[in-house]
Amino acid sequence: MTAASKQSKEIAPQSVQKEIQAALTWLKRHSSKRNRDGMARYAIISDNALGVSVANIRVLGKRLGCNHDLALALWDTNVYEARMLTAFVDEPARVTPRQMDSWCRDFDNWAICDHLCFHLFDRTPHAFAKVAQWSNRRAEFVKRAAFALLASIALHDKTSGDEPFLKSLRLIERAAADERNFVKKGVSWALRGVGRRNAALHAAAVALARRLVDSPEAAARWVGRDALREFTSAAVVGRLALKRRG
Fold first, then answer.
1. How far apart are CA 93 and CA 14, in angstroms?
2. pTM score, two decimals?
3. Cβ distance 87 to 99 under 8 Å?
4. Alpha-carbon dihedral sign for residues 154, 160, 161, 167
5. What is the mean pLDDT of the chain?
6. Judging by beta carbons within 10 Å of its beta carbon (0-12, 13-18, 19+), is residue 172 exposed, middle or buried?
7. How far is CA 210 from CA 38, 117, 163, 174, in A?
8. In whole angstroms, what is the distance from residue 51 CA to residue 12 CA?
């Protein structure tokens, strides 16, 4: 997969630490108890959350521009919103496999996991390799990250052929029996994402979903049924028909 490019932006001539302090001050000023309560309602548990909306985090990210060193320092603050901000500040081409592993081990809820996969990790040159590696890990949010990342690649990658996605179906099938809620939902998301790419992948994903429906494992049956509901929907069928005609 070719990494999507983010253009680096020269930031104000201040030290990284001054930039960090300014960013934290901005985030605190835009935080609210209402946002913190909303996070809790959606099972986004973090001991270090300020309560800032993703929309406002995006605004700050746009102001800061792209800077890899700043992103690393933001992550090290351990502040939830500062870590979310890294997805809009880091430079995908400079993200290393070691960094991805380290940050992934820090994931402690589904939102930070999905956010980093959807807005940053899927644009790195290491994305498919990390899907394969993390799918074998036991830690709940590391394993979810494998499939959240695969779903994100399936949506955003416009250059890869079908082969890596067909190979990924084996990873999905192997993980589908994991009963943990955040893992099985990630697995379903990945399966549905692969199946939406084109008619050939749709057929392969539907075949897998039907096998899962017949599984003796309850979690696998749930994943299969969840995917089939979407695969047979009028919206998906119509979109694939348009792609075929195109």
1. 24
2. 0.91
3. no
4. negative
5. 93
6. buried
7. 36, 27, 21, 15
8. 27
- What distances in angstroms separate CA 190 from CA 185, 193, 197, 208, one per listed residue? 9, 5, 11, 12
Tokens for 104? 């992934």
Domains for the chain: give ranges and CATH numbers: 1-94 (no CATH), 98-246 (1.25.10)
Q: How confident is the model at residue 239 (pLDDT cuts 50, 70, 90)?
A: confident
State how far the alpha carbon of 30 is from the alpha carbons of 36, 44, 51, 89, 244, in Å. Answer: 12, 18, 8, 18, 46
Q: Give the type of residue at 30.
A: H
SS3 for 8? Answer: strand
Residues 6+ apart with CB under 8 A from 177: 215, 217, 219, 220
Angstrom distance (rounded) from CA 122 to CA 86 = 14
- pLDDT tens digits, 159-205: 999 999 999 999 999 999 999 999 999 999 999 999 999 999 999 99
Q: How far apart are CA 73 and CA 17, in angstroms?
A: 8
Q: What amino acid occupies position 19?
A: E
Bridge partners (DSSP) listed for residue 66: 8
